[in-house]
Amino acid sequence: MPQPGFDQESAKIESWLKEVGDRVERGDAIAAIETEKVTAELPSLDSGTLVEIVQPAGAVVATGEVIGYLDDAAP
Question: Residue 70 phi/psi, 5° resolution?
């Protein structure tokens, strides 16, 4: 999870906007997140196929924690 704001250290995953098996391009919104101050879309930092969602909707995730995995070699 990238740092969602200047002083935010965690965020809640409100919902996933992509599903396992979906192709994701860098910058695509992959999840909706909520912090104490704002609800926003979380952009993907890389391109690839979403192969695993580690943190489900409703989870509170710390900055730097893995929320899912992309595979750039997956079809």
Answer: -110, 145
**20: containing domain:** 10-71
- In this structure, how many other beta carbons lie within 10 angstroms of the beta carbon of residue 24? 21
How many domains, the chain?
Answer: 1
What is the residue type of 45?
A: L
pTM for the full predicted model: 0.83
Sort residue 40 into left (φ over 0), alpha (ψ -120 to 50) or beta. beta
Q: Model confidence at 68, in pLDDT bands (50, 70, 90)? A: very high
Q: What digits encode the pLDDT tens for the residues 6-46?
A: 467 889 999 999 999 999 999 999 999 998 888 999 999 99
**Sequence-distant (≥ 6) Cβ neighbours of residue 47 within 8 angstroms:** 24, 25, 26, 70, 72
Domain containing residue 14: CATH number: 2.40.50.100
